[in-house]
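Slide 14.
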Amino acid sequence: MVPRSLVGEIRCSLDRRTFLQGVGVTAGAFLLELPLGRPGSAQAVVKIGTLIPLTGPLAEFGPNFRKAADLAAAHLKDAGLTLQLVHADDETSAIPAVAAARKLIDVDKVPAIVGAAASGVTIPVAESVTIPSRVLQISNASTSPLLTVLPADQGQDFLFRTCPSDALQGVVLGKVAVELQYKTAAAIYVNNPYGQGLAEQFKRSFEKRGGKLLAMVPHDEALAPTYVAELRRAVQDKPDVLAAISYPGHASIYLREALEGNYIKKFLFCDGTKSLEVVKAMGEKNAEGMLGTAPGSVLTSGYNVFIAEYGKAYGEVPPLPYMTNMYDAVALLGLAVKAAQVEGVPEMTGIAIRERLRQVANPPGEVVGPGAADLKKALQLLEGKRDINYEGAAGACDFDDNGDVMTPIEVWKFADGKIVTVRLEYEVPKI
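Slide 15: predicted structure.
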């Protein structure tokens, strides 16, 4: 849920980019279950597609997103509802992701897709594939403010997300920079809607509080062997700190180069650089104590259930973002599917699921959460024609008219080679 005052600023300050439509590239798909019954019918096992960054600059996050999705599907199955997840690699790139989404819809016949992670992937998939196909899309990790005002979805209502907009994160990142008494800053950002949106919001927030952003330097989404040219442009006016607004694959290179070349030694981080790869590239000693921001998970019983269940299924939970948001996206789709089945819809379409998504996610209704036990309770309530309100592993999943949710923003730091939470900002200040 993005404050309308911020949406106005975003609408004026950010230009949408035009993306090429990909053709002729097929992404691999992985099935969790064999289909039962007639595909597409209300009582058949319903296929749900996922677009996950198993390769590319966000590849560090992808395997854990897939595990979180599979965990939600396993809990739904234990509760009495089987979803067939069809996993596809979006390659952290628009063209292969568009091709993968078309395959999920045209070949696998999915009525809904979870993903993608990168905003620069989610937007072209939505514009070129899911919205024209009337297929529901829920991103677990795309935080660009542009998703809120995407013209292709205005009035269509096929694009949702279970993570907050960077209109919120950017405010907190600027606030943190001032709290650390930085007077000047520069930013290197990935040149896509995510990087541009977060960098712009950081600039407004930082300068509103008296700071000065000396340089905003973009780099391409494709990985490069070196970023020395970008570093030189960013630090030429000697900023106090450099904000790394990229993905782990990019930042691991230019942060190491910044330290080795003695360009700058103070950094700020974000959700895209909340990464153990970054710690490894910088060296534990160099990263020690440095702060970043990311969408946070409310430390509720639902979050604790997710942590415990993920640990039992896969071992130690890595300190990476958006796994809870992935779990919630799959769980909500399952609950919306069940609501449609109870109502006897003749075909499980994107519209049928969309029309029941807010019904299971938003108040009023009996509160249910993650885990097989609570999901079983939720399915039973739906069977009894009772209203439910899913409060997820990441917190409340109350969708506004734009398909946005409001969650707290986490301030985190690198400590002893690990990533630890400093605090959660529940009330994001306006700028």
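Speaker note: The two ends are 16 Å apart (CA to CA).
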